[in-house]
Design brief:
Mean pLDDT: 92
Distance between the termini: 37 Å
Shape: globular
Structural class: alpha+beta
Strand content: 15-25%
Strand order of the largest sheet: 1-7-4-9-3-2
Largest sheet: 6 strands, antiparallel
Number of strands: 9
Order of helices and strands: HHEHHEHHEEEHHEEEE
Length: about 280
């Protein structure tokens, strides 16, 4: 009982400190162009905003794409695990300059800081190839991320993604707001799975499939999402999908122990080129 009370007091203090920090930092948020403000406002309302690399117009994009396709070509041939599932192939490319330079373009950082409301940390980037599977598991299950109270994940499609390729799919934030019954019904189901995720049939019991939002798109499609608030998953696919996943949190995040996967040895890390310098992340 004492431990429970102590934990509740700590959580309340932490939340009060967070709210105070938001108020204090509001006056320091960078100015945004109107089209960039639209990204922030849509994230706050729906949890997802879809655009393209061309529309973003970042100067380092050509170097990013060249490096991404070069690394994709070096990925190992996939194989089935003991459960007969094709696991995604993931490279942690946070330290490679072509990827980190794009991540820290000032335009992007300004957008993300305005959404998160605090100084931001670029946690890292995964180059990911998702493979055909017939059953939902892992990130194919509906889930929410937990690294921070607010966070931004930027997904860049490196190949054309149609329904057969398993596009990103989400439930609009407006349908799962804190004050709705759906919010508690979803969290109950997630809690029963120890937050691993829920399948399509379970979600249909709460939110009809007609309300789910799929995000197919050509190569170069960019998806901004807050995976903490938007219930989301990758859909089942019959063809592979290649994409980049950039992750940003407040500095520091609420749960830094969940962010180490974006720069440590959890996944394969391609070697730095000789002229490259390591990039300090999480700052």
């Amino acid at each position: 009982m004492l431990d429970t009370i102590t934990n509740k007091i700590f959580e309340l203090k932490s939340e009060l400190g967070y709210r105070t920090a938001l108020l204090n930092h509001a006056k320091n948020l960078p100015a945004l162009e109107l089209r960039d403000r639209l990204i922030v406002d849509t994230l706050k309302q729906e949890g997802v905003y879809v655009t393209t690399l061309d529309e973003l117009g970042l100067t380092s994009t050509p170097q990013l794409l060249d490096a991404a396709h070069s690394q994709l070509s070096s990925m190992a041939t996939p194989s089935y695990n003991s459960a007969g599932k094709l696991l995604p192939q993931i490279y942690t490319v946070t330290d490679l300059p072509e990827f980190s330079t794009w991540a820290q373009e000032q335009k992007l950082l300004n957008i993300i800081e305005n959404y998160i409301g605090l100084p931001v940390a670029f946690q890292g980037v995964h180059l990911r190839k998702d493979l055909p599977n017939e059953n939902q598991f892992g990130t194919l299950l509906w889930h929410k991320d937990s690294e921070d109270r607010r966070m931004v994940k930027i997904i860049i499609y490196l190949t054309d993604v149609e329904e057969k390729d398993g596009p990103f799919e989400y439930v609009p934030r407006s349908l799962t707001s804190l004050y709705s019954l759906n919010y508690y019904r979803i969290y109950h189901k997630l809690w029963k799975t120890e937050y691993v995720g829920i399948n399509d049939e379970e979600l249909k019991e709460i939110i009809p499939k007609s309300a789910w939002k799929s995000c197919p798109g050509a190569a170069g499609t960019v998806i901004f999402t807050d995976p903490k608030v938007a219930l989301h998953h990758g859909t089942l696919r019959t063809e592979e999908r290649s994409a980049l996943f950039y992750v940003y949190t407040a500095n520091p995040p609420k749960r830094p122990e969940l962010c180490t996967q974006y720069w440590d040895d959890t996944f394969a890390r391609p070697e730095l080129s000789k002229e490259s310098d390591s990039v300090k992340v999480g700052t």
